[in-house]
Amino acid sequence: MTFKFEITHKDPATRARLGKFTTPHGTIDTPNFIFCGTKASIKGLSAQQMRDAGTDIILANTYHLMLSPGEELVAEMGGLHEFMDWKGPMFTDSGGFQIFSLGYGGITAEIKGTGRNMRPKTILKIAEEGAEFRSYIDGKKFFLTPESATDVQRKLGADLIVQLDECTPFNVDREYTSRAMRRSMRWGDRSLAQHKRHDDGKQVMYGLVSGGVYEDLRIESAEWTRDRDFFCTAIADCLGGSKEQMYEVVAMCAPHIHPLRPVHLLGIGSFIDIFMNVRSGMDTFDCVHPTRIARHGAALLKGAPGERISITNARYLKDKTPIDETCGCFTCKHHTKGYIHHLFRVRELLGPQLVSIHNVFTMNRLMRDVRAAIKAGTLDRVQKEWVP
User: Is 286 a catalytic residue?
Assistant: First the structure.
């Protein structure tokens, strides 16, 4: 099995770069977007529909799959690629983000100070050995350690796997962030050691850069990943309370990570965020954003205010035009905004599916434009076309 990351072009004005990331299931061009198939499914779309929309790589979630159907069953079914009929490269996270989101209500809720009491608390304990939590499905207790998170991912069978970490919430102080970062570093050493004990050449591991919004901690964590034998790097942990702070946090990490490894930015998916962060040298991104907003009738649109339109708006009731007349997706070739508006109004499942197809295609189109712009030195101009 062969993994390779080759940097093919560097932008002389920024850290933006082009690359080719080779895995046992194929090679992807970077920068690229990884679509979230949390429970071994991109909600509402088949693997073939994802391929038809130009998708190169997808993600599945370790935490959810270990609870149901369980990693043993997935392994028995031939691993995630066979299980869900995905032929290309695949990424699994470690479950560490759920340690954060289940304990604190998620990033958005944390920033807004809401959500803490909206669900039963499932996280029971975070200790040196690992994290104890209850299943949100049946209340059964689980204990996730760096070793078990690595083993679960090995059985799931994705090409790209991630060390276990604790993703700290926005409101904690520097002292707690520092303790959590150093624990995540120790967990990273244990994750990497467990991966090497069973390494058969089919997977490579990401080391995670944590440290919250604190520059000295971010630098320390970035240098730790650089000095360890990870194949890839991912920027993780709390990225701040605003877009501007997030860009600053990513930029403070960039000079200190390993310069020749592929770099992933976790949980980022808007047009503007991708344009800003490729300038800091990010190679891949993931987010539920494109398909999540599609299920609520939000269609991504190049050049639109807020990067989208709401197809449920009454203005589209009799609209005979496609979502985007410049788009080549199945939805825009075959259906009008008026028809899709009708589907949402009568709650037909086809409506969210058609908008999901369009949003996936649009994200892939965005990434192709970003790659072309980096090569041509026109990133500023292309950004203004997508985000006026």
Answer: yes
